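The passage that follows is intended for readers who have already worked through the single-chain material. We present the inputs for a multi-component assembly, then the predicted structure in tokenized form, and finally a short commentary. You are encouraged to pause after the input and sketch how you expect the pieces to fit together before reading on.
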Amino acid sequence: MNTLFDKIWDAHVVQHVEEGPDQLYVDRLYCHEVTSPQAFDGLRARSLRCFRPDRIVCMPDHNTPTHDQDKPIADPVSRKQVETLAANAAAFGLTHFGMMDPRNGIVHVVGPERGLSLPGMTIVCGDSHTSTHGAMGAIAFGIGTSEVEMVMASQCILQPKPRSMRIRIEGTPGPGVTAKDLALYLMQQLTTSGATGYFVEYAGSAVRGLSMEGRLTLCNLSIEMGARGGIVAPDEVTFAYLKDREYAPKGAAWDKAVDFWRTLRSDEDAVFDREVTFDAADIAPMVTYGTNPGMGMPVDGRIPADAAPKALQYMGFRAGEPLLGKPVDYVFLGACTNGRIEDFRAFASVVRGRKKAPGVVAWLVPGSWEVQRQIVAEGLDQVLSDAGFEIRQPGCSACLAMNDDKVSAGKYCLSTSNRNFEGRQGPGARTLLASPLTVAAAAVTGVITDPRTL
Amino acid sequence: MKQKFNIIESTCVPLPLENVDTDQIIPARFLKTTTRDERYFGENLFRDWRYRADGSSDTGFVLNDPNYQGEILVAGRNFGCGSSREHAAWAIAGYGFKVVISSFFADIHKQNELNNFVLPVVVSDDFLQELFATIAADPKARVRVDVPAQTVTNLTTGRSESFELNAYKKYCLMNALDDIDYLVLQKDKIETYEKTQRHAV
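Having made your guess, compare it with the prediction:
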């Protein structure tokens, strides 16, 4: 009568600390350049080495420019942070996919696509969107830098066990409704703190029906409901995705692994602390109007009458008004949320045979070099180029504007990223979150557009 | 910064906003440093609410109001949501806060505060609203946080509540010990676990 979450968690408990948290063994630690330097310094201050260096994989992504990556980073502060990660990885004997390495990209895109994130694992990273890897059937969650240091020092982390929640989405989503829309709908229904304290298992036919890319998008946004993480039970979709990936098991080890992975599911009589069910047919393409990801609405709807005034003032919107037809200044396709091949296919499907709207700045940023190679292999680069779009080089980019890709103050950006917080895409920037289809529709019309009408 | 916690009695800085995210506590552009200089982060705490685009202080923001000082930040529910950046906890500690009182904290940020010897104290919504009212009426109102007893008291109204803190973490806070000190002593148990673990990979 155990949940999938219980099974994986319990198998990783080294000990229950008396009247305290669980000491949890970590199978995989990912490090990026922003939240790791102080952890490495902490190890040095305590004269410690990494306890299990073979379980740690590092790559820069937040600061990387999305052009001219073969040249040194122009911003000296960004360059130093990226170089510090490379130096620390070398000093501590860790795997490192540096800039221009064909395996580099956003850590939450790279981990699954290289077969480094596998079913049944515990996975952590100093980044809240580590929840993404739960789509592989793993327990994956974001941690702080002190906790990164903990894992480096002991391959363990002290964590109170979260409560369990199951979210079922049943039925078939309508046309134009993507995994991103499912997630934005869940956030709107449950709020940004609706799942705080919980670890979520996503289930139901609409979730089962998602591709691996779609599941990664859904799990990515778990943190935006406050959840510690989200998980989807591994199935044939997962196994087909992982087969022959670089770090996935091979040969007899693969067969043995799949046999084990098939056992990773919640028991029929498993009891969750909380269960909610939604009907996929109720979900439309979504867009946000406010300053947290829970402030969402159907793209053809109206801003709620009771919307938070502080948020509307920041966004320059009025309660009760529609968003359709509102001009956008920037569009952003990318981030750990929607920077995968399926997202580029979706975007290309809308802009094929159309032209980018004049005056709109478009940033199309693949989540990794692997995604970039797939784009070219499928000829999508030509479709995008014919429509007037340029593909940039991989990284986190305009999601949080730690590189040069910043939205100007007061301007509107329709974005496939994960957060519309004040200033997230640059000081004063106004972000609206949506799916790659909805973003593509605005990219060619210049205004917020329902992708179902194109 | 590691420090021993016992009883803290202080005036408060009120921030009666809900869903304050860590991007507001410390914007991403201040995350590029490779050091853990709490003073630097403290100086940039709530940067874009404290300062206007031209660099001048926004006198309407509470941190710029000299009436409100103290070691206790009192914030609306769902404090610290969003990014896992520990820099947010470093900024709060660097500014000089030892305690944050709210009716609800986001998970990762709460853990980050604890790991940086900032105590997140969860109180009821009622208690929180009364405390906001008390501070609004008298900026010099004091609050007492008793870690050994796990109680928080609004000294103006006398209202007191107990708060949760597991025995392990309480011991750490009262003795200035952190989780890494603890974990490196568990090496034998970790190695035994690695030899006997049943799960794949």
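Commentary: The CA atoms of residues 329 and 359 of chain A lie 7 Å apart. The two ends of chain A are 48 Å apart (CA to CA). How closely did your sketch match?
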